[in-house]
Amino acid sequence: MILVWLIGILMGGGIAALLLGQWNRILPRWISLYTVLAGFLGIISFWIDHYPITQFSNKWLVQYRSDWIPNFGITFHLAVDGLSLLLLALTFFIGLLAIVCSWTDVKERVGFYHFNLLWILAGICGVFMALDLFLFYFFWEVMLIPMYFLIGIWGSENRVYAAYKFFIFTQASGLLMLLSILGLYFIHASSTGIYTFNYLELLGTAIPEETQYWLMLGFLIAFVVKLPIVPFHSWLPDAHAEAPTAGSLILAGLLLKTGAYGILRFVLPLFPAASEQFAPIAMLLGVIGIVYGALMAFSQTDLKRLVAYTSVSHMGFVMLGIFAFNELALQGVVMQLITHAISTGALFIMAGMLKERLHTRDIDQMGGLWKQMPYMGAVGMLFAMASLGLPGLGNFIAEFLVLLGAFKANVWLTIIAALGLIFSAIYSLRIVQKVFLGSYQKDQPVQDLAWRETLILASLIISIVWLGLYPQPVINTAKPMVIYIEKIFAAESTAQSQQDSSILVPLETSKQNKKGTYVSK
Amino acid sequence: MNNLLWLIPALPLLGFLVLSLAGKSLPKSIIALIGAGSVSLSAMISILIGLNFLNHPPTEGFISQTLWTWIEIGNFKPEITFLLDPLSLVFVFVITFIGGLIHIYSAGFMKGDKDYSRFFASMNLFVFSMLVLVLADNLLLLYLGWEGVGLCSYLLIGFWYENPQNGYAARKAFIMTRVGDTAMAIALFMIFSQFGSLLIPEILAQAPQVFQKGDSTITVIALLLLAGGLGKSAQLPLQNWLPDAMAGPSPVSALIHAATMVTAGVYLIARMHVIFELSPIAQITVAIIGAATLLIAGFSACTQYDIKRVLAYSTISQIGYMFLALGLGAWTAAIFHFMVHAFFKALLFLAAGAIIEALHHEHNMFKMGGLKNKMPVIFWTFLIGSASLAALPLISAGFYSKDPILWYAWSAEKGHMILWAIALLGAFVTAAYTCRMVIVTFWGTSKTEMGQMPGSLMTTPLLVLAFFSVVAGFIELPHNFAHFTLFSDFLRPVLPEITMGNETQPEWIFQLMASLATFGGIYISWQLYSKKPLLIPKLKQSSLVATLYQFWFSGWGFDVLYNTIFVKPITYISNINKNDVVDRLYAGISFITVKLYRSLSYTQSGSLRWYAMGLLLGAIIILTIQIVT
Q1: Has the ipTM of the complex gone over 0.95?
Q2: Mapping DSSP to helix (H, G, I), strand (E, B) and coil, where does residue B500 land?
Q3: pTM of the predicted model, to two decimals?
Q4: DSSP labels, B319-371
Q5: Which residue has the higher pLDDT, B134 or B476?
């Protein structure tokens, strides 16, 4: 029931903020703060309660299931395992920061703003919990539309263009996913006679090889556009640059993660054979993303665009790690999802703070700010170091594990990916140099961090250092899911090699039903 | 006693944390006390633990202390564990002891700087990172220290950030060493995939069983580790960040060159010596790179004006000697030279810093001159340091540490006449540029007015270092003197003995040759810079000499080379694609869509004649199709 509550309070809080925002401009932000805070405390206490068993449990920690549209086999089925739990905790954490960092920023249509913010979070939570494909698609759309408004209404100069671009990219790719969902639905029905959208029942559907590949691609494209992976990334710099700070924070911190989550939860378990077949291309795309994103980041002069391209580079590691299919790389992926949200989120928040003070995002017009605001300079330095993967900070663990795991899967691609470590140093140091170092060019004094800003950044610093020095809680929580995926593909590759070595075996026996041990009904 | 081990790195870390969080609100005296005090305290603890180690050697040969498990995923289980064995003890001693002296000196040196607390915070972090590097029991933790050292060098080289030039030098240092670091990271991946562990003792124990000597996999691993070492230790071809690293305050240079950072590569190779011994190709590569670097850097040092750049090139050159020794398998000789070098190089940098400070930030030594009588303490200590650098026979520590390397270069199993000849030529060049530096700085006429003289906070560390620059040599004497090998005996449990070649010449011949080289170098410099000062300008008039001089001066053109083949192409590609060519594709799609709908919307013109025309045309086309088919 807690799962329904999590979504419910967000949606309810959003509506309350919208309605009360008509009368009072202060009230909506307090409503959303308390709403998200309640959700955050709820999910954290849930995590603490269940932490002792997360590591060993091989099933869902909690489920909620009821019928929704029984005629079509659509259920309202939510469930949480370690991976979902981590991402939910992240969602509420980032959500909280998003609200605090737009505390005084937003002055127009405050009620509607907070409505959108909370509904995006509700959509994201739904995505991380839904176990019914129809429901999943529903939440996928729920997070899209409010985001469109958030960029289009509260963004900067070029906001309408960016909002359209964001909407069309995600919507078009989402439709491909819908087609694949329907395809899977009908194939399952034709082989078993049961019409269902339920993920657990669809798992292990026997799909002809060719069809499986296309269905997999439908899902995958929706997810890699969100991630994003080169060449589907070009909505990201625009959306990031134009969105308000809270929007960029949620985009980078959470929306991108839904793509990775989708691949982990749906693409790999539903289509293991096709995923394995596609893996080399996927890893290559990941590596291209790493290098291309870094190169692009190096030449940008708009701070938010620059950080957006670093996201492209970092998400390349996610793609590389996912398709390496082994425990180390997958743990690295989970870490990367969390640490990237924190480090890139921090960079976006700081870009927002700089814009507030200097009224520009152009790094050529900055410089020498360390002298004016040493504390912000130090924080900026720390997160630039996180972004370049300095050991001791969370991002290092993530990238190192991904590379360590990917090395087993593909030596040469991993070596090229490791060059990303050099590139990330180049662009990260460029940020620090251009913004904080050098000499200060303007006369007007600039305020260093205010207490509200200190609070936000301090919480991010504590998180990133904690993840860098003691990541074990995250690793333990994600462990069952990660091992589950590793097992699927271990089975897949042995099945593959058996198939290769014994061509004479009748077709029926080699097409075994690959049902994971993870499933529990 | 031994469970205080964790305090050695923890104290500087604590200093860093306190200074970076509260440094702004503390008075300078308290900042200095925290900054220098934390490192000095860990120096004391390491001396106590070291004495305890000597008196009651632990039965396993090392002390270790586990703080917590860092990561645990399947069999990948790196811990935060510190391991102290004789090799790391030597490094810990040098880092904390010399580091502590440098910190005390800095308390005086930096007292006029407005960013006093930031300076000490970064210095403490530097010492912490280096201590983690040498105390790590697994390669991942070592890598943490390794990268931390890179970060701190970046912070400190660019300490005076308002000058963009310093920021450039800082980034150059970070990025060039990161190239090496990345190679090392790949080595770590390979090691993990081969051994299933990153635990150093386990790797060293397993390597000889898993691999045959000369196996190509182990060669690749060794070469990648070497690449990591080349970056940090500023060896060919990743050496040219170090001369620019002079942009930082002088104590920083002392710390980078003596106690931390550049010796990391030496440590890594010595630590992983089993892997290098399994790969003759990698090992001879180490030796060749060391030999080439020591010579290249030596020639460059001869042409510099900036006193700190001379010292920087001399560091590259001396580390070259250490690499040469490592390549020959003379592990303990390399570590011995590291320790001796740490003393005299810290001394030289700190003394140079004092001179520069007294002469109102004048770096050009040809504008110094005549300081012999004006700054007697600095003069004498600098002279002692220089004697050690030039390896003045018998009385200087540098002689005792460098002489064995020269001898092994010829007579070790892996030695070769050419390696020896290069090393000997290097010794000659070293003596020449050292003597040149001393002459133009301290003799002749005074050319710049003196400012404030260094206080006792700065001179005391110099005296201590000068004492050790002489005495440190006597703990390991050549075989043909008294057979006194305290240092190598101490390291013996960790580092194996060198294998000598079949025919060995008597050592005294080599000592004599080395001494002659030293004196030859000194004589040449004395002639050129003191006796016949007009000779050099005359020589420079010939274009060949001038070109060569310029070539050496610019560090053999490596900056230009790397700019042309790496920096410029990458910047170019990145800049022409600033607007992202991929986005053109989508812009194209939307452009075509708009065009299509525009052209289709023309058809809906509202004009009856056009519609009638359309009807007619359509009818004709349909009819035609009907008739034709």
Answers
A1: no
A2: strand
A3: 0.90
A4: HHHHHHHHHHT-HHHHHHHHHHHHHHHHHHHHHHHHHHHHTTS--BGGG---H
A5: B134
